Prior knowledge:
This protein is of the alpha+beta class and 216 residues long. It has a single domain (20-197), classed as Jelly Rolls. It has 4 helices and 13 strands. The strands form 2 sheets. Strands 2, 3, 6, 8, 9, 10 and 12 form a 7-stranded antiparallel β-sheet that branches. A hairpin with an 8-residue loop joins strand 2 and strand 3 (47-48). The longest helix has 16 residues, at 200-215.
Amino acid sequence: MRNKIVTILLAIALTSVSYAGVVGNWEGMPTSGDGWIDWSNNSGAGVPIQTLSKYTANTDWHTLGSQSLELTQNGWAQTLSIKLEYLGKNSEFLDNKYIEFDVAVPNLGGAGGWGKIENVSLNASGFSFASLPSSTQMIGLWAGSGTVVKHMKIDYSAAKALVTATATSGYIELVFTTNNDSLNNEILFDNFQFTPEPATMALLGLGGLALIRRKR
């Protein structure tokens, strides 16, 4: 009986997902933008995304809740940005290791093409504006394909180590630069969150060893 209980707990650990660190589910779009801004005009303050027509809610594709954020814009250098200090999320950023989010590109023309995350950049107290490592993602479409979805996981721990301690009360900004082939000019974002070093697998390993020992 005890073995069954342990097995059930391990199964729950495998399938459970915590959204405690989510800072972008955009369920309130278009009236609320979850604090995200557009920085395409290069103004220091940026423009709230819910005030711009190129950002809308998409209910056809989402991985969290009932809708995602749809960015419709031809070309490159579109800059979706989040200033974490505005949301009181600085400590959450500093306490974690990874940026994770889901991104999708619909095949609008049906003939193929591409959309792209050019990079995710960090601008913070003590850290010069720079791209995070492994933050570029090309999303290719082929003739007849539907929407192509990618999950991105970016390890920002090396950059975080350079951010000064004053960043907890200072500024931390993340900027997403996108690009596309102009025909397939929609990029969808959902489930943006900060995540720690996975502890679940370590627990599963210990639980698995316990099960093996009991069987013996």
